[in-house]
Protein 1
Amino acid sequence: MRIEVPTDFGYTDEHGLLRGEARRFLNERLPMQELRKRADAGVAFDRGLWKEIAQLGWVGLVLPEAHGGAGLGWLHLEILLEEMGRRLVPGPFLGSLLAGVALVEGASDAQRARWLPGIASGDLVATAAVVDAAGAFEARDVASTAEPVEGGWLLRGRKTHVVGGADAGLVIAPFREPSGAVSLFGVDLPAAGVCAEAETCIDPTRPTARVAFDGVRVGADAKLAGDAGAAWRAMLVRGFAALAAESVGGAESVLLTTRDYAVARKQFDRQIGFFQAVKFPIVDMMCGVELARSLAVGAASALDQRAACAETLARMAKAQASDVFANAVRKGVQLHGGYGFTWDCDVHFYFRRAMWSRAMLGDAIHHRRWLAASLFEG
Amino acid sequence: MSARAEETESKENAEFRREVRAWIEANKPSHPGFKLPQSFLEVESERQFTFLRDWQRKVFDAGYLGLDWPAEYGGKGDPHKRQRIVSQEISRASAPFLVNVIGLQWAGPTILAYGTEEQKKRYLKPILSAEEIWCQGFSEPGAGSDLASLTATAEPTDDGWVVTGHKVWTTLAHFASWMILLARTDSQAHKYAGISYFLFPMDAPGVTVQPLVKMTGEGGFNQVIFDRAPMKKSALLGQLGQGWQIAMTTLTFERGAAEGTGGGSATPSESSVRAVAQLAKRVRREGRPAADDPVIRDRLAQLWITEEALRLTGQRARTAGLNMEDRPLATRLMNKVVYSELGQQLTELACEALGPDAGLWLGDPCAPDKAEWPRAYMNSFGVTIGGGTSEVQRNIIGERVLGLPKTK
């Protein structure tokens, strides 16, 4: 169980440039009033914005250059996702990222060449249907089935909380074969038998959907050629790290907003941040954010270095960032007082994001259970 | 550290780490058979002290202390990373701690920063070799968290000063040759401006060291009464009236927020979560191994997360681009509050894992691990209170890092 943290994160000036570029673009393109407009109109996915982000190289950031990606590492992505999390960037980024990873890790060259360039360019919106029946997402819990038929497969099952599911042209999803083995399939959408229905998501910036596979016929080449177990696991681990990074960014934003409010707001003839009952929770919020950021950076760096501890760090990061973000919004609303309870105060958007992100890909309880097993039995 | 860390470490450092590890394995003393202190806060008896001093001397003689201090003062002029490797390996091997903590970590680096050439030549090497032990005279009965309200005075004489006053919580005073001392030299000045910083000789006449008993029932820290105790002109560190500023530097070292210490570690050993996990496998709660209790498992997993996060934060602090540009000090200043509270939560959880046996105290033949866990839990308060309480730390972080309004 001893984990060896990277002694060098591999940070370069290039990482700093990406952060600056992302912050400038998002400050300009997605100020809060813009986000509110979209939320009020019920638009979580905007193809124009998606193309812009893709042209900046973000959608294909960690995809191989040979397939149109930027070929950068997970520390780059960590930094980008922190910035995106700060601004609550709407859209299917997470779904697209996971689909890309599943293809990189588990597809044949032909399959990669078929799908990845479209993903990286933003023309093909892809997603991974991660959550199976009953909220489960680890490979052992996959209940959806793939039945071999003449020339291909027949897919059945229900996937939920699929990010970008209603807008996607490609969905990657796991199905269990009669042998018990879980395989990954890439299904082009729309397809006969696939019903993608938008969910009403607590977070208006997440375009999620329920996707039902009701006897969907796919060709033999829809099944990803690689080791599905390894690919699924690699995808999940990267998903933990990605959601952690994004949550750190969200929590950072709530921290700054709450700090500013505690400095600006006066009661009893004083700035409320003077009172330790207000000051200390903000300090604890900061300590939590910094600890979570260290884990997110450590996990990203471990992924870049293909270190054995990457899964442990990614799960730690997801657990910590989920709790820290949840704590930040809880205190954030509370410390804004009556204003914090209103729609006008921006904190509730982060509150919604925190609620969704904590529950997705395993909350802290889930990951601590895994970590405890590794600690005691590993 | 294992293979993984060594891969990313430079060849030279990895080689050095292996050398240090081998040396510690071959040279670390076996348990002497009498009760050893858990930290430098409770070195009670002469034999405990001698045992620990000899160990530090051995580490120094082997060339593993003061690595990043300049060669002319007994060091080696190496990068700080080297000293950190030694500290990590001592902690990893569960070898005894280095007893002259206050000298190595607080007084030494402060003297390096503010001392005259003469002072550096005089004081630094005996700190490394443990020939001269240091203690700290900052807190007073009426000046704790509000340290700047201290009232001990240093009155000028023909060839120096005489000190009158009362200092408390002076760990190691009964073995110390020197004290870093804060005393008021100008009663008319603003309270921060009237303080000066001295290197005070503990063998001066007019000094009385009295033991204080800790909540564990053990000794190890003291109070020191000064009755017109003399010191020479050369005892002044820095300028007259600069004491508060220098004291803040010392506290930065004390809280683990700056690099440049001569060695050793005041933070909990890096294997502490692992030690509690081992304990939980050995002891039973309600008839089952404590390690089977889902609540114990969940809480220990959380502390493991915090422990790793803190370790990574220490590393991240050294990469400017990975720190928030508007609060570059955050990762350093939060260190003390997080590690001290982690140590407290961890030792408390260990006690809970013990079930009813947590009620057995030092000396009971059936106490698990000789009651080290309840003792460690009580001692953990020395860390959350000493060196600036967690509450004061939160004020500092809130005000200096986040720009929140000042409490004072």
Note: Chain B touches chain A through 52 residues (CB under 8 Å).
Protein 2
Amino acid sequence: MKKKLSIFLVVLLIAVTLAGCGGSSGRDDADKTATDSADGKKTVVIGAQTDLVTLDPGHMYEPYANMFAYAAYDNLYTVKSETLGEYEPSVATGYTLDDSKTQYTFTLRDDVVFASGNPLTSKDVVWSYNRVLNMPESNAHVNMKNVKKVEAPDDYTVVITLAEPEASFLNKITSNAYAIVDSEVVKEQGGSDTGGDTAKTYLDGTSAGSGPFIIKEWTPKERVVMERNPSYWGTPSEIDQIIVQEMTSVDSQITALKNGEIDIALSLNQETAKQLEGIENVTIKQGETALMTFLVMSRDTALSEKMANPKVQEAVRYALDYPAYLTMAGEGASIPLNIVQNGFVGALERDENFRDLDKAKALMQEAGYEDGFNIILTCANNNSEGLEWTTIAQKVKEDLAEIDIDVSIETLEATLVYEKMRNAEMAFYLMFWSPDYYDINNQFAFLPGLGENGTIYGNRAHWDVTADNQELVDLGSKIYVEDDANARAALSEDLQRAYEKDSPIATLLQHTKTIAYNSERLANCPYNDLCKIELHHLKLK
Amino acid sequence: MLQYILHEKNTMLKIGFIICLLWILIAIFASFISPFDPVKDQNMAMRFQPPGKDHFFGTDSLGRDVFSRVLYGSRLSLAAGMVTVIISLFVGIIIGGTAGYVGGWADEILMRLSEMIQSFPPLILAMVIAAALGPNIYNSVLAMSMIWWPNYARLTRSVVISIKESDYVTAARLMGAGHLRILFAEILPNCFGSLIVMATLDLGNAILVFSGLSFLGLGVQPPVAEWGAMVSDGVTTFNYWWISTFPGLAIFSVAIGANFIGDGLRDYLDPQYR
């Protein structure tokens, strides 16, 4: 019996120890090359949980893809360092726009060469754009839809003609769809600008661009290795090699950063970053994002007649306890009034004291549901910058209980939820939005519109254009082409105020990004939401 | 039996008995002893409070009292574990009894079926079934019962086969007893001892698997307080150790308590192990 008791005590001890250190799963075969490696190369290692599916800029669509596109390729215009949606010339030196506002004429630098040694000329730009234009199967294709034709009158001039005027075109041109590839090299590898392109396999393993780095190796779900481009036309980077190491667990990123195995941890949030506070040589940094989390309330009465009622949807907006969501998301987060994120033109913020339960209850009564009702809130097992959606959903449940809406939370696999969302099968759900390009024009996905010519969320929320919300569509089409910044801001404000009157969306949060880096090795760690870490601006100490 | 627990020098059994009794009492009286409501008392001003005098086990990401949630969590865990074991026991006795008593092709089919189920790792199979049925508490209990019954069926079958040819069973048959009477009144009482030991030992396992399913998001739906789900809450906010640790210790104590009782009962019912 004594023996059994002592075994019990040992088991107890082990269990308590395990409880103390569980969760921090071990790192597998990550190279310990954060410090300068033996061969004298200056290497920077980034720990991240990326969502890469391809490294071909003509096919990329994933939020982390632009980090690699920007390292290996150049665009005519590029995003301004550490801004949200501002741009500056890159390969182009400038542009002119004709009176019809559909024809852009870009002049190119004449000193740009590809990593292969070939000079970058207008024919490469034309070929690269035509390649994506003729790849309708590519996800990136959608950002090129408005381009009618691309021409090269001479070696250093490119003329782009749009199907219709678009004020956000220069902004779009900073995205990976418009990356310039080395047409000679890619053609040899099966590339085609007339359809039937087969160069993706080649570009998944290397790069054919003029950017500051060359992609040397990609092992999916493991790592991407990049080396400095020796013939880069701009200011060369001081870093010889960059390794982006896949680390799916936040804890392993934190441990690796503490141990000096990685230089940058990319998948933190404000709560997890607290583990790194006060540690010497580790700097925690906040970055602006355009990532929104919001509630969608479908107008489809077949899904839920009660939730589809516009009065109920307005009541939901009045019932939410906005400051609580801000607390959850942490410092730097904000609440956009509705569909225009902070940082975009004319953006308005939600008043923190917007919650008005009396008004919400009155709206419920007007709708005829003063006794409340039951509804399922579908929530993917996902998170927004580290904030678990189930946590948000539980707060929503609590808030809506105040106006007698009894919410049952249904957590499902994320892929399943996205499929249901695309098929418009959910009455009430939590969702996120990260724009494809950083301009208000991208936000028109939230305007009303059903059917093939409708909008993304018009369809997902079954919200059609009516006489009452025609104003939204009109304002949208005005903003779409307006290129005067002040006029655009004024129109944007009008749009947001009009949207406030009636919509199936309740915006909860605009998130902030938390990263941490080794400040003993790195002098800076510039972040912008489009390309995440700006690898070309990264500086060593 | 109670006398045995109280008077025999079996420390393990006593410890196990006390732990389980305590948890059963907590489960019954959770609403009286919890200082806070486990679901409704959200308080954003009190998020991530460490254990202290107001919140013995601290608070979680929504400012809820972890202590109250652990107390309430005992209801679900104990109930789910017990229901799983009872369903499996019931199904197992019927299937195992039939297989052993009828023999022949019925035995073959039923035993191959149980082997099929046992050839999968239990947690993986439970995950597959729970995910296919949709995540909620009833489905996870159903999924666990579906993987658990073969243990009881095999045990019952082996006892039935060894006894069905014995003299007293033949005597009962000669006296005109029907099949059901022979099976339930003459044969099965012989294996109740082993079945009860097995069931008690399994109770701990069932609670562990149930917590595992909830941890993976296949058990209860938030905001219901359940130990496995609470452990998983704390995984993303790892620096607030109390969020996972206390529900983890609760799972541990129940599982070990049930195991101690199982061991002790075996000593009592199966003297050869003593």
Note: Residues 2-21 of chain A form the longest helix (20 residues).
